[in-house]
Design a protein that fits this description.
CATH architecture of one domain: Alpha Horseshoe
Largest sheet: 9 strands, mixed
CATH class of one domain: Mainly Alpha
CATH superfamily of one domain: Tetratricopeptide repeat domain
Helix content: 40-55%
Strand order of the largest sheet: 3-2-1-4-5-6-7-14-15
Radius of gyration: 31 Å
Oligomer: single chain
CATH topology of one domain: Serine Threonine Protein Phosphatase 5, Tetratricopeptide repeat
Length: 755
């Protein structure tokens, strides 16, 4: 026993065995050797020795407690629970057993009962640091991070060098979005115990939240060294490597996690993300499919599987899961980014429910407001455009002319870039267009929020919403008096921290107010701003050079492949069947989509050679390419946005089918903005009939082309100056409301005047 207490475990074990050699039923030797051996893996021999001891003294509470501890460590919580219950039956004031009982209950998911057990242990023994730490664990699991942090701090008051309490405090702080403080707590745990793998993992995750990827990888590699057989540690390392865009190494980390625990759904899902980022969509889909088997109510893999299948136009493969996605999107348990719903659900009510449910899981609460009602009184309104995509991207291309035109006597304009610098001419143009271009991409969300508050921004315009790379979460700290969603995400964000959405009456009819968490600001013409300074198409490449037949009628659609649905594709195939010598010109997005679309054409009795895929090219070439097409066929229910804008700018007529939701009404808004509502249809039957009529009537199609060219200089769609003045009137009203201490409400702008 003396050797055992001093940590000389091998010598202690030898002596316990020596006792048992001469006295096989010695209770103390059986019990204590069992305790010693149960701390090792496998713990089976130790557990059996304690059980043998209890046959000799069945009413010894301490042995029941130790048996429960061994069983709990061996991940047998139901058996452990019975042992702890027996211990407290035998000794009602046994604080340690009450707290251990709480641990077993927590492992079984019975958290409220666990809470009561730990609280009872503390009542019996007020200076019991372990019970406070265990209480903190349960409170973290219950989402009560403030109370959890208090419990961990109380444990540390009793025992300042308690590594586990420092670690749990770090976890609680991380869930409070206090990543810097969490890092300090994890480092303190490591200072006490340099081999504390769990603390290294927590440190790595917290550093990753701070976007300190290199440090995160180093911490997580140390955690892997200390605990190489822990699948979750490998998953965390994979996430850090993914953040560094080291997709090969990330995939290797996820695969190692799956070797250790094949049923790890998160590892399957994250491996799918790494494979998709590397361009291997088929392998990504397979990983997401396996993740579905293990992720229960978690919707991430379901959503990603549907999205990647739709990107490959693998519609039949995705159909059951797409239906499941629609069913689950309406539930409070929906916890995945709602962007893929835009192409699958023309339902603004469902999109609203899904967005709100997602944010309740992804962001939750506990964000202290950084702006507390102060009135800045700036002589010029401080206006910030906030986006991941201030680079060669459609969002930047649409807003750059707007930024250039803002009245600098009234507005001080900031661009807050949260994404990578692609060194493009467009990024440089954006940076020169504004008064201040600030790169916040290395910063954590909280630090971005603090910077926005420090700059005293009056109005921030989020251009991203729930799109890839979005850092909109930074606005959850409410750093700005007026926070606005515009342009980038064609649906409600479902966020309590976004005050306004800028729309028009076409994309969001007034009866759809309940489908938006934001207050709606109606522009008088089209919601979408345009770059009126972009080059006009000057010459078409010879059709032969573009892979097109010289004498064919060219239907075109350059929207992303995930927007193509079976229903719209069948319409396109019927059009090809009805128009001899016609072809369909599509964007070459990925080889699986090309092959699947060709096969779908074959199944519709259309020669697959009549589908022609255009590789991605630079922007000027893309605009010139439009001149080689005859008619642009829009997708539904997710219309083209910037893509249709470019087609109309180039003089290419667009036929669209207007649906119910914002994403399904974008092209209708653009066509109204250019004065051509006759190209808007409201059913696929009407859409097909109109496209067919135009394809059969060259004179009518030529009239539309001339009308587009004539409308371009004076249309509301391409009158950026007019849109700029309308937006400025809206931003000024938003500042007035915040400075007056009023609550945001919906309003309209008519030709620069508030209505």
């Amino acid at each position: 026993m003396a050797l055992h207490r001093s940590g000389k475990l091998e010598q202690a074990a030898q002596l316990y065995r020596a006792v048992l050699a001469v006295a096989p039923n010695d209770f103390d030797a059986l019990h204590l050797l069992g305790v010693l051996l149960s701390a090792r893996k496998p713990a089976g021999e130790g557990i059996e020795l304690i059980r043998r001891a209890l046959t000799l003294e069945p009413n010894f509470a301490g042995a029941h407690n130790n048996l429960g501890t061994a069983l709990l460590a061996a991940k047998r919580p139901q058996e452990a629970l019975k042992s702890f219950q027996r211990a407290v039956e035998l000794k009602a004031d046994f604080a340690e057993a009450h707290s251990n009982l709480g641990n077993a209950l927590a492992d079984l998911g019975r958290r409220e009962e666990a809470l009561a057990s730990h609280q009872h242990a503390i009542a019996l023994k007020p200076d019991y640091a372990e019970a406070y730490n265990n209480l903190g664990n349960v409170l973290i699991a219950l989402g009560r991070s403030d109370e959890a942090a208090q419990a961990c701090r109380r444990a540390l008051e009793i025992r300042p060098n308690y590594a586990k309490a420092h670690n749990n405090l770090g976890t609680a702080l991380a869930t409070q979005h206090r990543a810097e403080d969490a890092v300090a707590a994890f480092r303190q745990a490591i200072a006490v115990n340099a081999n504390f793998a769990e603390a290294y993992r927590g440190l790595g995750d917290a550093l990753l939240a701070l976007r300190r990827e290199d440090e995160a990888v180093a911490a997580l590699e140390r955690a892997v060294d200390l605990r190489p057989d822990d699948a979750d540690v490998h998953v965390s390392l994979g996430s850090a490597l993914s953040a560094r865009r080291q997709m090969g190494r990330a995939a290797a980390a996820y695969r190692r996690a799956l070797e250790l625990r094949p049923e790890n759904g998160v590892a399957h899902h994250n491996l799918g993300n790494a494979l998709a980022a590397a361009g291997d969509l088929e392998a990504a889909a397979a990983s997401y499919r396996r993740a579905l088997e293990h992720m229960g109510e978690d919707c991430h893999a379901l959503l990603q599987y549907v999205q990647v299948c739709h990107q490959m136009c693998a519609w039949q493969q995705a159909a059951p899961q797409a239906q499941a996605l629609l069913e689950r999107a309406g539930r409070a348990s929906f916890n995945a980014p709602p962007f893929p719903l835009l192409a699958t659900a023309d339902d603004p009510v469902l999109q609203h429910k899904a967005a709100r449910a997602y944010l309740s899981h992804a962001i939750g609460s506990g964000y202290p407001a950084l702006w507390k009602g102060e009135r800045y009184g700036h002589p010029r309104l401080k206006l910030a455009y906030f986006s991941f995509d201030l680079r060669e991207h459609p969002a930047a291309r649409l807003v750059v002319d707007l930024i250039e035109r803002h009245d600098r006597g009234q507005f001080e304009v900031f661009a807050i870039s949260a994404g990578p610098d692609d060194k493009s001419a467009l990024r440089r143009r954006v940076s020169l267009a504004c008064d201040h271009f600030i790169d916040v991409s290395p910063l954590a969300d909280a630090a971005i929020a603090e910077q926005l508050r420090a700059l005293e921004i009056d109005v921030v315009v989020d251009l991203d919403g729930h799109t890839e790379g979005s850092r909109s979460r930074a606005l959850a700290w409410r750093p700005v008096p007026a926070q606005v969603a515009y342009l980038g995400y064609p649906a409600t964000m479902g966020a309590d921290f976004i005050d306004y959405a800028i729309v028009d009456r076409c994309i969001v009819p007034e009866d759809q107010h309940p489908c938006f968490s934001e207050k709606l600001v109606y522009l008088p013409d089209c919601f979408q701003v345009s770059d009126s300074k972009r080059p006009l198409p000057t010459r078409a490449e010879p059709r032969a050079k573009l892979g097109l037949p010289e004498d064919a009628f060219v239907f075109a659609c350059f929207n992303n492949t995930y927007k193509i649905t079976p229903a719209i594709f069948e319409v396109w195939m019927r059009l090809l069947g009805a128009v001899p010598h016609s072809v369909l010109w599509l964007v070459a997005d990925n080889r699986w989509a090309d092959a699947n679309l060709k096969e779908a054409a074959r199944q519709n009795q259309i020669d697959p050679a009549r589908l022609i895929f255009a590789p991605r090219v630079d922007y000027v070439s893309f605009l010139n390419r439009q001149l080689a097409a005859d008619l642009f066929l829009d997708t539904a229910p997710y219309n083209g946005g910037a893509t249709c804008n470019d087609a109309l700018w180039a003089g290419l007529p667009v036929v669209t089918c207007c649906g119910r939701a914002y994403a399904a009404r974008m092209a209708a808004s653009l066509l109204q903005g250019i004065g051509m509502p006759e190209l808007v249809t409201t059913s696929l039957e009407h859409y097909e009939a109109l496209a067919l009529a135009l394809a059969r009537d060259p004179a009518e199609l030529a009239r539309f082309r001339r009308k587009l060219v004539e409308a371009r200089p004076q249309s509301a769609l391409f009158d950026t100056e007019r849109v700029c003045r309308n937006l400025e009137a809206a931003f000024a009203e938003m500042r007035r409301v915040s400075e007056a201490g009023e609550q945001p409400s919906s309003f309209s702008i008519e030709t620069g005047v508030l209505q």
